[in-house]
Prior knowledge:
Elements: E1 2-7, E2 20-25, H1 29-32, H2 39-45, H3 51-61, E3 69-77, E4 87-94, H4 100-121, E5 126-134, E6 144-150, H5 153-156, H6 162-169, H7 175-185, E7 187-201
Helix pairs in contact: 4-7
Amino acid sequence: xxxxxxxxxxxxxxxxxxxxxxxxxxxxxxxxxxxxxxxxxxxxxxxxxxxxxxxxxxxxxxxxxxxxxxxxxxxxxxxxxxxxxxxxxxxxxxxxxxxxxxxxxxxxxxxxxxxxxxxxxxxxxxxxxxxxxxxxxxxxxxxxxxxxxxxxxxxxxxxxxxxxxxxxxxxxxxxxxxxxxxxxxxxxxxxxxxxxxxxxxxxx
Length: 204
């Protein structure tokens, strides 16, 4: 249904593991298993062009580092959002298998109310939670991803409101208690900044 291309500037340089990410969003596993690159489709979109040459050009332009199959377990966004957010903060977590329910409960009870308040204030575009369906196993560096969505640089760099956000949403909770709940269920592996380059969505 949707396709996105993001640039990932940090960490940068020739030794960075990757510099770009593509996100394909499907509404069902059946849809995902349909071939996305075929002779018929290529001929329809690029009439008169050679598919073998195009394939070679694509392969020479980049190396595919890795791919995952991610499932969305929670998503919410601003009702008046026009177009996809231009900036994402991608936070990778490692959650023990026996703490997945506890992690999701902690997100919903502690952090989601604050994220939704930010949306109400116009300080955030949305949030989505992904869990990694494939590959799986204790050897994986991370198992869950939190996607913080911002419509533009003004939203992304606005930190002034955050000092009082927790007091407003959780007046009976202090930062120490919130941190304690967080570290009991999850290990934050890394954080990345993704910048939207291009996108295509299914037309109704």
